[in-house]
Amino acid sequence: TFNKPLQEQLESDLRGTSIKPRTFHSICAQYLHPSDEAEVKLEDWLDDNRIDYPVIRQLGKDVVSKEIDWLRDLGVVDREAYLSLDRRGAGKDGRLVAEKREQVFEVLEVYRSYIRENEYWDWHELPLLLLDKLESGAITPEKYDAILIDEAQDWAPTWCRI
């Protein structure tokens, strides 16, 4: 589940069974063992780097952050793939012109490099870090007889791939 209170309720209800209620991000953390000291927040990084990237000042940190989180949830790591995406559900004001998309993607690339070079993590990057390790064979996932996903329609495509 994505919802911590639901996980806790299910743990209570299913005590004594072999069923393991978990949040998605706790499963990611189980395999990656992220340090609390290494956690960063995209919003803080955007604040610290707004001088170097005019798009942050022009669009605002909230717009840039939402767009970057949307890309990471989709697992988009290729500039051309992003530029060719039809951005639906963002509302008329949320659709960025190609020039702004280019600039947002540059910010994403620099931020992801910053995270990986410094061995930092944030909650939106955690699934991508785990997916990389799973696909490279660096991590072998635990085997389950079945997995029930609460509200799967709200899960990011990257999460479902994991």
Round the mean pLDDT to the nearest integer and report it. 90
In percent terms, what proportion of residues is strand?
Answer: under 5%
Task: Enumerate how many helices there are, as a single number.
Answer: 10
SS-derived structural category? mainly alpha
The rounded Rg comes to 18 Å
The parts where pLDDT drops under 50 for at least 5 residues are: none
Order of helices and strands: HHHHHHHHHH
Total E-strand runs: 0
Q: Span from first to last CA? A: 14 Å
Biggest pleated sheet: none
Shape: elongated
- In helices, the fraction of residues equals 55-70%
Commentary on this structure:
- This protein is mostly helical and 162 residues long.
- 58% of the residues lie in helices and 0% in strands.
- Helix 2 packs across helix 9 (126-136) and helix 3 (42-49) crosses helix 5 (61-74).
- The longest helix has 21 residues, at 98-118.
- The chain is elongated.
- The model has no long low-confidence stretch (mean pLDDT 90).
What is the topological layout?
Layout: H1 4-13, H2 24-32, H3 42-49, H4 54-59, H5 61-74, H6 79-84, H7 91-94, H8 98-118, H9 126-136, H10 157-161
